[in-house]
Amino acid sequence: MDLGTLIVRLLPVFAALALAAVVETVVPLRRQSRRLHGRLPTNLALLAITSGLGMLLNFALAIGAGYVQAKGLGVLQIVGTGTVASFVVTLLALDGATYLVHRLLHQIPLLWRVHLVHHIDASVDATTAFRQHPLEGLIRFSFIAVPAWILGAPLAAVAIYRLLGSLNSVVEHANIRVPRWLDRLMVLIWVTPHMHKIHHSRERTQTDSNYANLFSFFDRIFGSYTPSSRGTSVAYGIDGYDGPEHQSLAAVLWLPFRRSRRIGESAPVKT
What we know:
The structure is a single chain. By secondary structure, this protein is mainly alpha-helical. Helices cover 60% and strands 0% of the residues. α2 packs parallel to α8 (155-173), α3 (39-71) runs parallel beside α7 (134-151) and α5 packs antiparallel against α7 (134-151).
């Protein structure tokens, strides 16, 4: 897999972003400012950074997975798992690892400072999907690459998982309304927009829930699920980080290196 192929595989993601932007404009879930305190230019800049870094990391991931497969070193090769079973195991393993790293990003203070860049966006929309600090990209990559290489996961399965994760990230952050009957049906297995919106709540008990990436049952299994019915009415963002001084590109890139506040903590008193 070369970089040209990786660039081509970004096209569905950018197409999904464009479509989501249209839907958000025509029939939004809620009326909110796209440019609140300068957050849109910052989100677009982080989109470019995340996309560029993602291409390089995916290239490294593919090289490593290809090497393990060629040498027959992966667990799936040693066990002799069939093609279909290998795909299923890969998707479940990578999604489980993504659930784990997302939960750790919330529970470990140093990692929370990195992940905070994503959560201080008070107008959640499709551009929020890639509002991510480069350090978070590296952390998430390690939790994908290690199990993929240990398993000797099929390259196609890894590529499909990465693509599904990017596409669903756009959809689940998009400012769109999903019919209640459809949400109830899908959320039994899949992470829906209403389910993930709860994760962007200002209330700590809500933001520290619904960590799953694709398969919603990981949250049910590990006791971190909050019903998706609450997703249409949550207030987004983190108290104390709404001002424009926190939303510039320079500010969010520097944020992990500053002392951060958890949800529910009061802002420092200025003297």
